[in-house]
Amino acid sequence: MQNSGFIQKVFEKIDKLDAVKIRQIISELSTEKELYKLAFDSLIEGVIVTNRDNKVILANRTMEEFISIPIERIYSREIGYCNFDPEIKEVLDEALTGSDKVVDREIHLGRTDQRIILSVLPLLGNGEAAGHVIIFVDITEKRVREMQLRQAEGLAALTTLSAGVAHEIKNPLTSIDIHIQLMKKEIAKLEGEETKNMSNLLVIVKEEVDRLNSIVQDFLFAVRPMSMSTSMEDINEIVKEMAQFLQYEVEEEDIEFVLDLNEDLPRVVVDPKYLKQAFLNVIKNAIEAIHEKGEIHIKTESTEEGDVVVHIVDNGEGIPQSRMGKIYDPYFTTKKFGSGLGLVIVYKIIKELGGKLKVKSKEGVGTRFSIELPVLEKKKKLLTYEEKDESKALNR
Ligand SMILES: Nc1ncnc2c1ncn2[C@@H]1O[C@H](COP(=O)(O)OP(=O)(O)OP(=O)(O)O)[C@@H](O)[C@H]1O
Ligand SMILES: [Mg+2]
């Protein structure tokens, strides 16, 4: 590998070198340049180098993932020509006009849901800034993996706790319930006005015990292995049943159900009882997220792979980005009376059915939960399942 001192020396002696020697040196330098270019293009980071006028003087192939234009077309152009997403543009403008460098700034692109780490460093030539080096790293998959790992760890920790909690809480609760029945019988034997008051108080105690019992049951449901009894089912029928079941509650809340069911879907192997429970939890969340008038769209369609997907889309409050990583955590709730186990149960059921659960949300716009269920015997694909533009999908 030649250093810059070598080139300087060649330059000084160039008049004394014969053509053969010069040709040899040029060939070596050209091979070396190719090698640098190869290494530069092989980086997982996208890199752009700009001059003092913020014009592109160098860019590597990886950069095409971030700008969707061939890099050849951006050479000598102003950096703005790359047409970056507004979130990136804002940071670049700030870094290129100011004197502060930007190091490892995490940016979330609303349009594509990508997560980018961006650095803007000064390009130093002879000790003074001759431009900038701009570095992009896509960490979207890394973040998704981290989130999945957190979910798995959360579930594992919860399972370990379950046996103890079941004994500690469920047994005394059953005993309290039995004693309430006994007290009721004893009170019934007495006479007088006071017995009425006592009965009323017992009704409250009984209600509270029932509430505790249902929390414990939810908890156990979330952590115990499930014994599913599966059958071939028409997913649209299940959706219609759920919509009918919740119709009254939804109307009460001034919410409208809009069903968009693809009637040409293959059947899926599911346990309808569990699947209904999963739908119920997601739809309940959607109802709770809508504070005034609103709509819940339920759409069924085929995925690109021929599986079946059910989208449950609300135009409620949405989930802030900072909360996204926590919604599957056991006990995470933002509601006054929530137990924070609803989505843990959904996740578990869908996983048990071999499906996938995806969520997209925009604060103030709404949320879309997509439940993908595998089809064993895949028909030839009839419909294309598109991951639609987030805002469009949410506004449907
Ligand atoms: N459709 C949605 N819109 C907005 N936020 C949601 C939505 N679905 C879930 N969330 C958020 O995720 C959190 C966890 O949901 P999850 O269903 O697990 O628990 P919960 O609804 O709070 O309590 P519960 O155990 O009663 O279901 C919610 O508290 C809420 O902040
Ligand atoms: Mg819930």
According to CATH, the fold-level topology of the largest domain is Heat Shock Protein 90
Q: What summary fits the major beta sheet? A: 5 strands, antiparallel
Overall mean confidence score, pLDDT: 86
- The helical percent reads 40-55%
Question: So what's the CATH class of the largest domain?
Answer: Alpha Beta
CATH superfamily of the largest domain: Histidine kinase-like ATPase, C-terminal domain
CATH architecture of the largest domain: 2-Layer Sandwich
Give the overall form.
elongated
Give an overview of the whole structure.
The protein has 396 residues and is of the alpha+beta class. It has 3 domains: 4-140, Beta-Lactamase, CATH 3.30.450; 142-223, Orthogonal Bundle (Helix Hairpins); 231-395, Histidine kinase-like ATPase, C-terminal domain (Heat Shock Protein 90). It has helices spanning 4-13, 19-42, 64-67, 86-97, 140-189, 194-223, 235-252, 272-289, 321-324, 342-352, 390-395; strands at residues 46-51, 56-59, 102-108, 115-125, 128-138, 231-233, 255-261, 268-270, 294-302, 308-314, 356-362, 366-373. The strands form 3 sheets. The chain has a 5-stranded antiparallel β-sheet, sandwiched between helices. It has a 5-stranded mixed β-sheet with strand order 7-9-10-12-11. Strands 6-8 form a two-stranded antiparallel ribbon. Mean pLDDT is 86; it is low at 380-396. It binds adenosine-5'-triphosphate (ATP) and magnesium ion. Residues 281, 285-286, 289, 314, 316-319, 327, 332-335, 338-343, 367 line the site of adenosine-5'-triphosphate.
